Amino acid sequence: MRMSQFFLPTLKETPAEAQVVSHQLMLRAGMIRQTSAGIYAWLPLGWKVLQKVAQIVREEQDRAGAQEMLMPTIQSAELWRQSGRYEAYGKEMLRIKDRHDREMLYGPTNEEMITDIFKTFVRSYKDLPKNLYHIQWKFRDEIRPRFGLMRGREFLMKDNYSFDLDVEGAKLSYRKMFLAYLRTFARMGIKAIPMRADTGPIGGDLSHEFIILAETGESQVFCEKRWLDLDVLADDPGYDSDLKDFFAKYTSLYAATEEMHDAATAPAELETARGIEVGHIFYFGTKYSAPMGAVVTGPDGNPVTVEMGSYGIGVSRVVAAIIEASHDSNGIIWPDPVAPFHVAVVNLKADDAECARVSEEVYAKLQAAGVDVLLDDRNERPGAKFADMDLIGIPWQLTIGPRGLKNGVVELKRRATGEKQELPVEAALAKVTG
RNA sequence: CGGGGCGUAGCGCAGUCUGGUAGCGCGACGGUUUUGGGAACCGUAGGCCGGAGGUUCGAAUCCUCUCGCCCCGACCA
C-alpha cells in the first residue's frame, strides 16, 4: 500500500472524548471512527488489524476441530422465549419490531439459535460430537459504554458451541477449547491467563476467563508469577490426546479474578495486576438443550439431551486490549502477527530521484516476497513520517534517505525496541523477510 | 438509571459569570524558503456557537425544553 493513496486519517492531537490509551491511539492512528456511543466504524487500518486477529482465531478454531458457519445478527424473540431468556436478559438486549410488529432482537449471543439449528438436523449420537462457531457482530445495549472498543455496545465476537453425548465428552470439548484459546492468544503475541470464573447455577470448575494483563484493565486479578514463563505453543500436546495432563498443568497455578479470589487458599507469593477479559469458556450442560429439546437418540435407543458448552472471544476487544498491553508514548507497538503491515518503507525525501528509485525497488521486492508492506511515498518532512510510523506501530521501519544512500545503506528500525541499525539494502531486506 | 461534566471551524480550545456584528493553536489549500524525529514566512478558505422555543433594540452569552457525547457507580466478550 502506498501511503500517498491510503485512507489513513491520523491525528496529531488526542480527541477529547477518549480516556483510555487504546481508544486514544485507535482514534489517532486512524483505525476507527465513533458513530454513536459504543458503536464504531472500522477504517482501513483498523479493519486490517481486526481481520488479522479474526484470522488467527479462525485458524485455531479450525485446528481444534470446530467448523465455521455464519448466523444472522437479527433474531426472533420466539427463540429466546423457548429458553426463557427473552424475559431474563433485561435491557442489555436491543429489542426491535419489524413492519409486521413482530418482535425481533439484535443478537447479544447465539445459544438459542445454534441450539435450534442443531436440534433440527442432528438426531443420532453418531453425529456427535460437534463444535460450530461463527465470527459475527453482537450488540449489547450496555448501560454505559466506555473505554472505546474495550466496552462498546456493538462488538465482533467469535462464539462457538459444543455438543456432546455425555459429560465426559463435553469436558473434552472444553479442554480442547481451553488449549485452542491459549494457542490463539499466544499466537497473537499476548499473554492471556485463564482464570477460574464463576459458573453460576451450573457449578463445577468448568468456566475460565482469559485475561490479558494491562495497567488499564477493568478488574483486579491475582496470579502466580510462574504463569508468565509458560510457553503454551511449546507445551501443546495436540488435539488427539485427552488433554487431561495439559489441562491439569495449566490450571494448577493460581489465577483468579477479584470476584473469585480467595486469600485463604491462594499462595503467598502472588502477582497482583489489572486485567482485561478477552475470552470466556463455559460448560453449561443441558441449560439450553433441555428446554429447547435438543435431543439425540443414544446407542441404546433412548433419547439423550445433549451436553453443551459455549466459548467466546471478543475479537474487536482483543484489538484494543493488545494496544493496552503494547504501546509507548509515541503510539502503538503491534506484535508482528497482528500488525496491519509487517514493514514500512519510509522514503525520507520523496522528490529525490535516488531515494525514490531505491524505495520503489525495495517496495516492489517486498511485495513480490509476499510481505505486507506500506510505502511512505508522501512528500512530508521526515519528522512527520517517523511520528506517523511510530503512531501506527508498524513492527519494522525501513528508512531510505539521501544521507544513508550516499554510503550505500538504509536504516532499519525495530518499533518495539527502538533499536536502529544501518545496513545495505539487501541485508535489510533479508532481515525483514527472514 | 442515579450523580457529575461538556457541545463554539476537521481536531484541541478561549469567549458564556458581567448580552453589543465570533477568536487562538494545530490541520486544510496556494506560494516562497526548507528537508534524518510532527519546519519558517506570506496568503486563502472554512462556523445557523448541537437543535427548538422564549426574554431583549440586540443572545454563543440569560430562561425553558430537547438531542448528543464524556466521566463516576450497579451489568458485561
TrEMBL record:
<dbReference type="InterPro" id="IPR045864">
    <property type="entry name" value="aa-tRNA-synth_II/BPL/LPL"/>
</dbReference>
<dbReference type="InterPro" id="IPR036621">
    <property type="entry name" value="Anticodon-bd_dom_sf"/>
</dbReference>
<comment type="similarity">
    <text>Belongs to the class-II aminoacyl-tRNA synthetase family. ProS type 2 subfamily.</text>
</comment>
<dbReference type="GO" id="GO:0004827">
    <property type="term" value="F:proline-tRNA ligase activity"/>
</dbReference>
<dbReference type="InterPro" id="IPR033730">
    <property type="entry name" value="ProRS_core_prok"/>
</dbReference>
<dbReference type="Pfam" id="PF03129">
    <property type="entry name" value="HGTP_anticodon"/>
</dbReference>
<comment type="subunit">
    <text>Homodimer.</text>
</comment>
<dbReference type="InterPro" id="IPR050062">
    <property type="entry name" value="Pro-tRNA_synthetase"/>
</dbReference>
<keyword id="KW-0436">Ligase</keyword>
<dbReference type="InterPro" id="IPR002316">
    <property type="entry name" value="Pro-tRNA-ligase_IIa"/>
</dbReference>
<feature type="domain" description="Aminoacyl-transfer RNA synthetases class-II family profile">
    <location>
        <begin position="38"/>
        <end position="335"/>
    </location>
</feature>
<dbReference type="InterPro" id="IPR006195">
    <property type="entry name" value="aa-tRNA-synth_II"/>
</dbReference>
<dbReference type="InterPro" id="IPR004154">
    <property type="entry name" value="Anticodon-bd"/>
</dbReference>
<keyword id="KW-0067">ATP-binding</keyword>
<dbReference type="InterPro" id="IPR044140">
    <property type="entry name" value="ProRS_anticodon_short"/>
</dbReference>
<dbReference type="GO" id="GO:0006433">
    <property type="term" value="P:prolyl-tRNA aminoacylation"/>
</dbReference>
<keyword id="KW-0648">Protein biosynthesis</keyword>
<dbReference type="GO" id="GO:0005829">
    <property type="term" value="C:cytosol"/>
</dbReference>
<keyword id="KW-0547">Nucleotide-binding</keyword>
<dbReference type="InterPro" id="IPR023716">
    <property type="entry name" value="Prolyl-tRNA_ligase_IIa_type2"/>
</dbReference>
<dbReference type="InterPro" id="IPR002314">
    <property type="entry name" value="aa-tRNA-synt_IIb"/>
</dbReference>
<dbReference type="InterPro" id="IPR004500">
    <property type="entry name" value="Pro-tRNA-synth_IIa_bac-type"/>
</dbReference>
<comment type="function">
    <text>Catalyzes the attachment of proline to tRNA(Pro) in a two-step reaction: proline is first activated by ATP to form Pro-AMP and then transferred to the acceptor end of tRNA(Pro).</text>
</comment>
<protein>
    <recommendedName>
        <fullName>Proline--tRNA ligase</fullName>
        <ecNumber>6.1.1.15</ecNumber>
    </recommendedName>
</protein>
<keyword id="KW-0030">Aminoacyl-tRNA synthetase</keyword>
<dbReference type="Pfam" id="PF00587">
    <property type="entry name" value="tRNA-synt_2b"/>
</dbReference>
<dbReference type="GO" id="GO:0005524">
    <property type="term" value="F:ATP binding"/>
</dbReference>
<keyword id="KW-0963">Cytoplasm</keyword>
